[in-house]
Amino acid sequence: xxxxxxxxxxxxxxxxxxxxxxxxxxxxxxxxxxxxxxxxxxxxxxxxxxxxxxxxxxxxxxxxxxxxxxxxxxxxxxxxxxxxxxxxxxxxxxxxxxxxxxxxxxxxxxxxxxxxxxxxxxxxxxxxxxxxxxxxxxxxxxxxxxxxxxxxxxxxxxxxxxxxxxxxxxxxxxxxxxxxxxxxxxxxxxxxxxxxxxxxxxxxxxxxxxxxxxxxxxxxxxxxxxxxxxxxxxxxxxxxxxxxxxxxxxxxxxxxxxxxxxxxxxxxxxxxxxxxxxxxxxxxxxxxxxxxxxxxxxxxxxxxxxxxxxxxxxxxxxxxxxxxxxxxxxxxxxxxxxxxxxxxxxxxxxxxxxxxxxxxxxxxxxxxxxxxxxxxxxxxxxxxxxxxxxxxxxxxxxxxxxxxxxxxxxxxxxxxxxxxxxxxxxxxxxxxxxxxxxxxx
Length: 441
Description:
CATH superfamily of the domain at 35-282: Aldolase class I
CATH architecture of the domain at 35-282: Alpha-Beta Barrel
Largest sheet: 9 strands, mixed
Shape: globular
Strand content: 15-25%
Structural class: alpha/beta
Number of helices: 16
CATH class of the domain at 35-282: Alpha Beta
């Protein structure tokens, strides 16, 4: 196994393991330095995929579940607006947001009416309906990200998706009908399942290349409490296989026609407008997550929302932020390391921007890290930017894989905190805010 895998795991676990959790506090109001990113979580799914790590809930169309949830989303958003937040872009994840496209489209209209969003991205499954596509186009969705995972029927069956979404040929046909209807159509592929056949992955990627898909995201299988039983049934995750699949299959297959815009996202070279990606944390330093189980990073703190629908909706209805887990403020140097990690996962760090944000040159603030990256042959400098090479791309894929794996532990903590709060009397004080008249109409 690549020794840098152990280094990445140790470094990420050491840093994230040092986070201290405090009782959630109040949002400080006032003028904020710039526009943040808005993540909107829509947790509803027809069925829960066995490899999924995220907060998902089975959709119940017979109740007011969906309408109640979007009403709570509005109220939570208004709390952040009242505290002075401005949002410049939004990403809708889940769950399967396209399942509730009518309610989601109305909510996005509400958001656009309050904030000047430059771009909006929405996740969808391969059975996204024509009605959902029409709804999203009508509200100006820029990027549709389709969770294909594979075009191979055997792999789809292994992932528990063949019955739910059809054969690989059917999925391919549906994806091709989406091309041209949004500025960007992204397709997600998962790789490094135990004993993942390199030939199957190569065929999947070549099919997408031949079809001219705008953007491809190839992310490795990650372990979490939510999917551990599935991973255990599949077998041991082999990180040597992960390295082989990345270096010998993914990069060679995509290199000619696609540009890596992060360690695991690739955009067509002939379409410069394909400039958005799933990992919004690359381009936005601060972000706010609304909805059940959402995570945020703002004001130097990490926070996680209530994990269950009843608790989330109860807290919001009481006029309180639905945060159940909040960290102490990050140390300034840790904030710098986080920025460097995310920037290099996105393949480049702007040294001038780093200095504008932190008030100190990168080479002085993080000189041991910069020297180490150069010594290991992972980065190169061109002008005022530092870039990862292909060796560095894989190292930062490992780092982000370990980062997201550890972040899933935060979700487990939030789930435990949510269940504990559900049986307790709601604490005071309430978060007081005064939305603009008619805002919830």
